[in-house]
Amino acid sequence: MTHKTSSLISDESKADIDRWLQKYPADKKQSAVMAALRIVQDQNGGWLTPALIEAVAAYLDMEPIAVYEVASFYSMYEHKPVGKHHIKVCTNISCLLRGSDAVMAHLEKQLGIKKGQVTEDGLFSIKEVECLGACVNAPMMQIGRDYHEDLSPEKIDEILARLK
Amino acid sequence: MARIEIDGKTYEVEAGKTLIEITDAHGIEIPRFCYHKKLSVAASCRMCLVDVANAPKPLPACATPVWDGMKIQTRSPRAINAQKAVMEFLLINHPLDCPICDQGGECELQDVAVAYGKDRTRFIEEKRIVIDKNIGALISTAFTRCIHCTRCVRFGEEIAGVKELGATQRGDHMRIDTYMTDTVNSELSGNVIDLCPVGALTAKPSRFAARPWELHTAHGIAPHDAFGSHLEFHIRRNQVMRVVPRENVALNEVWLSDRDRFSYQGLYAQDRLTAPMIKKDGQWQTVDWESALLFAAEGLKKIPAKQLGGLASATATVEELYLLQKLLRGLGSNNIDHRLQQVDFSEKTTKAPFLNQRPADLAQADVVLLVCANLRKQQPLLNHRLRQAVLHNHAEVIRINVYDYPQNFPVSHNLTVAPHQLVATLAGIAKALDEAQPAFKNIEISEQQRAIAACLQKNNKKIKVLLGEAADNLPQLASIRTLTALIAKLTFATFSETGRYANSAGAILAGALPQQTLAGQAISGETGLNAQQMLSQSLQAYVLLGFEPELDSIMGATALQTLQNAPFVVAINGFCTEAMQGYANVLLPMALFAETSGTYVNNSGDWQRFTAAVAPVGSARPAWKILRVLANLLDVHDFAYTASDEILNEVKMLCETSAQTVEDSTWVLSAPQALCYLTEPAIYAGDALVRRATALQATADAQACHGAHVNQRTADKLRLSAGQQVKLSQNGGSAILPLVIDAALADDCVLVYTGLAESAGLAHDVGTIDLTAA
Amino acid sequence: MANQVCFKFKQHNQAESWTLAAYQALGGYKVIKKILNEKIAPETLIAELKTSALRGRGGAGFSTGLKWSFMLPRDEAARERMKGVQKYIVCNSDEGEPGTCKDRDILRYNPHALIEGMMIAGYTIGASKGYNYIRGEFWQPYQRFETAIAEAYKAGLLGENILNTGFDFDLYTHLGAGAYICGEETALLESIEGKKGQPRFKPPFPASYGLYGQPTTINNTETLSSVPSILANSGEWFLNLGKPNNGGEKLFSVSGHVERPANYEIPMGTPFADLLNMAGGVWQGRKLKAVIPGGSSTPVLKAEIAMKMNMDYDSIAAAGSMLGAGSVIIMDDSTDMVKTLARLAHFYYDESCGQCTPCREGTGWLTRILHRILHGEGRPEDLELLDNVSNQIMGNTICALGDAAAMPVISFIKNFREEFQYYIEHGRSMVG
């Protein structure tokens, strides 16, 4: 058995994880694994490394494989580097009906990358995602934590310009 | 009770049981993949869907409890349609590469597909491909064949007690995986091979070696730990191709430890002794049996009885051990022993190590005190029962040991102390239980000892006190045993001893001891020499049974030297090593595990008889036959056995009619040492067979046994660092080993595993050991 | 008159409708205070809910009163046994069904209604702890809700011995991380426990074995948020807002090809045509082609059928679909039904948890066939195969995701078969 440590987790992140731990019964530390993964992912610029997964396992007394099961199951955990601005474009039905194809095409054209890729300057990445629950404001996308709704090419350009 | 109807027939069944338990009990066939009677119910493969009246949709038999008045159809169109649907789904992405799959012919998917599958596919899309992964030396993977039943994952969580395999990703991408490059290291890992219903996890050591239909089976008893698992040999053309568990509700259930599963490889080691050999004029020559036995008898005849010693491994059968001691005693010598790992021989009587309960009783325990036990690695399936007590009965476990073995369940008190402190600790607990005893006058009781005593003093609770195999290797054995037994007595606990080897108990019952004969009866006349005495000063002659002194004896180099100095040595062994050729004069090839009939007595007290599953390699013969002829040639009386059963009957009759008297034992506190030398047989090197099983040697557990282990504080004190070559020396021997920092040790202790070539140069000396930079 | 959830839309015009002050200004927390002060019997509250005919707003439409009643001890022996047993109330804010975005607005604009609803639920079922599971993407709604919790704690409305009534109630948010399946209540519980969101097989049901193995009730956000106003007025009042067996008003998320896509809170039983009108009708003056009335999992309906139905559980069921979560997806006559279905099929393929064979394998098969058709490689027999595979998934899985994946396929092909046939024959869409 390898003894893995949680030293990669910053003090700030640990404090944040500890706040989540308080929400759950003391003997149910595993409940905080989703929050912990999100927190270390944020700490690492938006994606998880094996070392971070091991650190979370050590911090929460879990087997690394149990943490990895969770990390690989939920779609918001990234296992490859993403852009500083990670653009998640919904292409599900309500967005599709209102032009998400055009949104995606426009983004790809403006950023010069395809979905699943990161711009060379590391500023942007595009990911196609499932319904984000803003269907009455379709088409929409999420950049980082923010929703951008009722998109049009002009609106997308404005948003990108602000972020560049 | 509930009255239910299955396919039109009425059954009276226990309410609350699941439907599949009922149908299995009544021989009604329901296909399944994820369900396994010893694992939790996943209900996810959906193969066992059946038609239950008034249910809106088909229900999984594995997860549906029966209720009174329930009407089930297992073969109605709705049931069959559901089952066929699932079957089709399971097959669309399965590679159907049966011709090149090791599971072909014994594959659950194949079998069920014959009944429920179609002969052509409607799936024209590209099939899923999953990249394989090396997960260790024992299990071969072909993940593309996986049908996601998750039995292997549940096995890790629920039985092995360590989650090594997981189901990662989701949906169609879900796959069975270890974490990154991790291997599967559980001592029970091989069971996932049996559990896997397809060829996704197969046995690596026997990969591509044989087809199931070429194999026939034979029953056997596991030859390593004292638990005595039942197993089955799969044999092709007189060769054991693999070993699998044979179900036994009372012992191993459906499981088998990796050691018992893969040690058969040792049968076919390069150094198997296949023909009798004698050393004439310093030259070894292969001879026929008659010449060899005559040569041995001639040699032994010349020796005065007192100068004759017999040493045997406790992996020998009751019959073999009984005949060996009968032979020696017939020749007038009581110099016989099998306690090769022992250093403390101060006890006057030796009792067979028994659990004094069934393994299932241990699973019902409320409080368990484990002293010097490494159950997880040494008796994995006994440990499994204890783990059940912890998980399902919330048993409290107290562990006291000289090494903090990694455990797969929570422990409430965990003490790791140096051997001399062990006696003081046990005395403290005993005193806390009975302060009035004068013998404890000078004993101090610590808070923790008091807490442990309180833990053990519970009314109406099932208290178990268990003394493990690791005590054997300690110089304080007698004191530890006395105090542990006393604690058990004071707490009205069941006192158990685990023993170490497959026949630890049988060897004692068979009388392979210098001071007592069959069934523990004291010998008349002078006590013979014990193993330590026989191996420290040379006698004129020895008869060795399955014994490799430098590896099997705790005295290692000293033992080897002593035998080298002996004028005449008859080695009855399955193997032929350079060392043997150095000290022996006659080498008599014996049949090993699977090749011979005999009996082991396990720690549950079961006399487990087995027959030969294959003919011995070369011209090797069962040791009982070798000993019989030798006795005949030496004119020892009452050796006219024609079958091993006759020997067993003789032993059993005497065991049943005589009761052992046990003398009261005492205990003494021992003085601290500058550096305590601890030894333990390496997990996969504890006997001649397993140390030759190559796949096991490549496991993480085997690898962890290398080197000289000290904790960080001890290393610092000795100014040594991890990985550095260090020299261990005693007055008799030395070894150069890499230093391993091991947090599981107490301060001022060094642990070296025996049974390995690297440590064979050491000679156990309870006095001093030096550890310096090499 | 309007119910509790609705009044957030009244507040909508106010600044900061989500604050405690705004909520209390409109009578918020009066109900829980009354319940606690008067120690109203849980049975009484449940009876009122049953009268209201409030049904689960998350999609399953199960009677809320009945669900809560499962948490009450059946007899004295059970009451004795349950003493000291930790129970949980869990809110399902894992809104992810394509077409659905109503709970997000409740979290954003009326979080205190949910908090009060969860408190009432906690009191009624005997749970001193509650978790609200919010989908991970809803960061702003999550923050809004956390702020509301903090306000409530500060005001002594949450925590120990609330308002000196001896009632303890702690409320926490659990944040998801991207998995539609966690909207399934037992997958959601697994997720709170820090595991993959894989649904549990039932029985046992959460009422006996729920979060951490303890008795648990799980309700949807809108359901719980509706409770305070029902109890503030009466069950009868709520029932009369809607129609028998379909009590109250409900939020409908109208998305797709309409002029004014939005959430509309309307009485149950409102004609679909009226709702469509409220949303400004089909956009760009186009013709209505199809309607998915309850979220992507519910069967699609042809325009002429939809135009005749009313927006309530029974009427939509009679029309051949389901009210679901009230997520009305409008499709005009330019809609490529093959492409639309392919996208939906891909969604279920993407979101299948993977444990049950029919769903894991079947969703992959469906999406691959549709993908092939979309790329001009369809075969005539594919339509039957799609229908067949869907039917092989239906009813054969632990949770409803399998059914949810199958129903769109079956209904799209049934209602728009000629479009699929055309696509297979010509390798391109019949429309556009």
3D structure, described in words:
The complex is a heterotrimer of chains A (164), B (774) and C (432). Chain A is α+β, with helices and mostly antiparallel strands. Chain A has helices spanning 11-21, 33-43, 50-59, 64-73, 93-97, 100-111, 153-163; strands spanning 85-90, 124-129, 141-143, 146-148. A four-stranded mixed beta sheet of chain A has the order 2-1-3-4, covered by helices on one side. In chain A, strand 3 and strand 4 form a beta hairpin. In chain B, the strands form eight sheets. In chain B, strands 14-13-24-23-22-15-16 form a seven-stranded mixed beta sheet. Chain B is globular. The chains are: A alpha+beta (164), B alpha/beta (774), C alpha/beta (432). The interface between A and C is large, with 44 and 56 residues.
Outline:
With 774 residues, chain B is an alpha/beta fold.
* Number of helical regions of chain B: 24
**Ends of chain B: how far apart?**
73 Å
Which band does the percent of strand residues of chain C land in?
A: 5-15%
Helix and strand content put the structural class of chain B at alpha/beta
Give the key terms:
heterotrimer, A: 164 residues, alpha+beta, Arc Repressor Mutant, subunit A, Glutaredoxin, 4-stranded mixed β-sheet, 7 helices, 4 strands, 11% strand, elongated, C: 432 residues, alpha/beta, 5-stranded mixed β-sheet, 20 helices, 46% helix, 14% strand, globular
Walk me through the topology.
The complex is a heterotrimer of chains A (about 160), B (about 775) and C (about 425).
Chain A: H1 11-21, H2 33-43, H3 50-59, H4 64-73, E1 85-90, H5 93-97, H6 100-111, E2 124-129, E3 141-143, E4 146-148, H7 153-163
Parallel strand pairs in A: 1-2
Antiparallel strand pairs in A: 1-3, 3-4
Helix pairs in contact in A: 1-2, 2-3, 3-4
Chain B: E1 2-6, E2 9-13, H1 19-25, E3 49-52, E4 59-60, E5 71-73, H2 77-92, H3 108-116, E6 139-141, H4 151-160, E7 166-168, E8 175-177, H5 191-195, E9 201-203, E10 216-221, E11 230-236, E12 239-245, H6 258-262, E13 277-280, E14 283-286, H7 289-301, E15 308-312, H8 318-330, E16 336-337, H9 359-362, E17 367-371, H10 375-378, H11 380-393, E18 396-401, E19 413-416, H12 419-433, H13 447-456, E20 463-467, H14 477-490, E21 494-497, H15 504-509, H16 531-536, E22 541-545, H17 549-552, H18 556-565, E23 568-573, H19 578-583, E24 586-589, E25 598-601, E26 607-610, H20 623-633, H21 644-657, E27 676-681, H22 694-697, H23 700-703, E28 708-710, H24 712-717, E29 725-729, E30 734-741, E31 749-754, E32 770-773
Helix pairs in contact in B: 7-20, 8-20, 8-21, 12-13, 12-14
Chain C: H1 7-11, H2 20-25, H3 30-38, H4 42-52, H5 64-69, H6 76-82, E1 88-93, H7 102-109, H8 111-125, E2 129-134, H9 139-154, E3 159-162, E4 167-175, H10 185-192, E5 216-220, H11 221-232, H12 235-241, E6 249-256, E7 262-267, E8 270-271, H13 272-278, E9 288-292, E10 301-302, H14 303-306, E11 310-311, H15 313-319, E12 327-332, H16 337-351, H17 357-374, H18 382-393, H19 401-415, H20 417-426
Helix pairs in contact in C: 3-8, 4-12, 7-8, 7-9, 8-11, 16-17, 16-19, 17-18, 17-19, 18-19, 19-20
